[in-house]
Design a protein that fits this description.
Elements (H helix, E strand, L loop, with lengths): L15 E2 L14 H8 L5 E6 L4 E5 L10 E2 L4 E4 L20 E2 L10 H17 L4 E6 L3 E6 L12 E2 L2 E7 L14 E3 L14 E2 L4 E3 L9 E5 L3 E3 L5 E6 L8 E4 L5 E10 L4 E6 L4 E2 L18 E2 L10 E6 L3 E15 L10 E9 L16 E4 L3 E9 L8 E6 L1 H4 L4 E2 L3
Parallel strand pairs: 1-4, 3-5, 6-9, 8-10, 12-20, 21-26
Antiparallel strand pairs: 2-3, 7-8, 7-23, 9-10, 11-14, 13-14, 15-16, 15-28, 16-19, 17-18, 18-19, 22-23, 22-25, 23-24, 24-27, 25-26, 26-27
């Protein structure tokens, strides 16, 4: 929407800008008066757009930081570039055919109980046609399908499946790290500046962890603690990022020269989630840190929430020593093919995941070491664990989160303390 209305309100610094309407609760609240509110928030506004998930403000000049985390209940994106779409879903590559498949099905706004079956049908459609797909994303009203081969013609792919429009990306556009590039923080100099390398007597989600030092080069890998889980027999384990413990599987806090807290005993295949059996004298509570500078109180993490049950647009949180406190928006449902580099391995496996948008500028923060961080909602339900931030322009500031389902399905739950 364009307008030349002169601004009548100067926005004061605020973490959450509350307006008479809330777009997260009611996407259709944008009447003429609501648009006027948005236009008048910033001087020299050139355009304001809303895709149902995010507000994009195109301005003559960027406002002073800190920028608000939410405006009218949703996350904003600020730009001076009229071609900058911000976090809006990349839906510019569509099929060049009018072929609609599974027209007898209706996948629009599916309830959680029907999502798995819909994903299976979409994946099967491409599999039987020998079109290699590495990921399928479901955005409630449309699918984004990630094609492995750039030679696939847009004439050969459907324009809609189950009454949901289909859009396409290529795997090379996803900005995923290769296994050797996974963002554990590689440390040779233990005096290097860190956001929070404090040693805590009682551990909790979001403390710094380290591997043992390599016997030859002295390198250690630093990651972040997840949550304390319990199996069906009552055994308790700490979730960690498995690639952060390549040497002998010993876990230390906060550095390799700190306290030996336990031993890695199990990895959940293809998820980069592993379990550490804590030493008997190590205490861990499933309560997050308080962030006094932002007025953020601790959250008690109560339970896992299955991936299908978190609505797109849900407010989510993450806290670790490397990025600090982050607030974001839960994005699309995802199924990621494992392995993504060998479509001929049979049977193919697909893991459940979610994408979360952690705010403008997130990819510019020191993400290395954030792997393993829990991501939770306002009710203290854990959606999953941070795996990486995409380095692509299509998903700039988006993070890939391995869903809690991968632990739920193996009989694990959040440990009660």
């Amino acid at each position: 929407m364009d307008s030349h209305t002169e601004p009548i309100v100067d926005l004061q610094p605020s973490r959450h800008v509350v307006l008479p309407f809330n777009l997260r609760l009611n996407r259709k609240a944008l009447d003429k008066k609501a648009w006027e509110h948005l236009w008048n928030l910033f001087p020299d506004t050139k355009a304001v757009s809303f895709d149902g998930y995010f507000l994009v403000f195109t301005l003559g000049s960027l406002p002073e930081k800190p920028w608000p985390i939410t405006i009218a209940g949703v996350q904003p994106h600020f730009t001076t570039d009229p071609d900058d779409d911000g976090p809006i879903p990349p839906i510019k590559r569509a099929s060049k055919s009018v072929r609609r498949v599974l027209v007898e099905e209706n996948f629009v706004n599916l309830p959680p109980a029907k999502m798995d079956a819909a994903f299976e049908l979409v994946i099967k459609h491409f599999l039987v046609r020998n079109i290699s797909v590495t990921e399928v994303q479901y955005w409630d009203t449309f699918f984004i399908v990630v094609l492995e081969d750039e030679d696939v013609s847009m004439v050969d792919v459907p324009s809609a499946i189950g009454r949901c429009a289909c859009y396409y990306l290529y795997e090379k556009e996803m900005g995923r790290p290769h296994l050797a590039e996974f963002p554990a923080q590689q440390i040779y100099d233990p005096t290097e500046d860190i956001v929070d390398n404090s040693e805590y007597e009682v551990l909790r989600p979001g403390v710094m962890l380290s591997s043992d030092k390599h016997s030859v080069n002295g390198m250690e890998l630093r990651t972040t603690s997840g949550v304390l889980v319990e199996d069906e027999l009552g055994g308790r384990y700490l979730t960690v990022a498995s690639h952060g413990f390549p040497n002998n599987g010993r876990a230390f806090h906060p550095t390799a020269e700190g306290t030996d807290i336990g031993q890695l005993i199990m990895e959940v295949p293809y998820t980069d989630v592993a379990l550490v059996k804590l030493n008997g004298d190590v205490q861990f509570v499933n309560e997050t840190f308080e962030t006094t500078s932002l007025g953020v109180l601790p959250t008690r993490l109560e339970e896992f929430i299955p991936a299908n049950e978190s609505q797109i647009g849900t407010h989510v949180f993450m806290n670790n020593p490397f990025t600090g406190h982050s607030e974001g928006t839960c994005g699309p449902h995802s199924r990621l093919r494992i392995p993504i580099d060998d479509p001929h391995e049979v049977p193919l496996e697909w893991i459940k995941a979610r994408w979360t948008y952690m705010g403008q500028g997130f990819t510019d923060r020191p993400k290395e070491g954030s792997c393993g961080s829990a991501v939770w909602n306002a009710d203290g339900q854990v959606l999953g664990f941070f795996r990486y931030a995409s380095m692509s322009q299509q998903f700039k500031d988006w993070s890939f989160v391995v869903a809690s389902d991968n632990l739920i399905e193996k009989g694990f739950k959040i440990a009660v303390w």
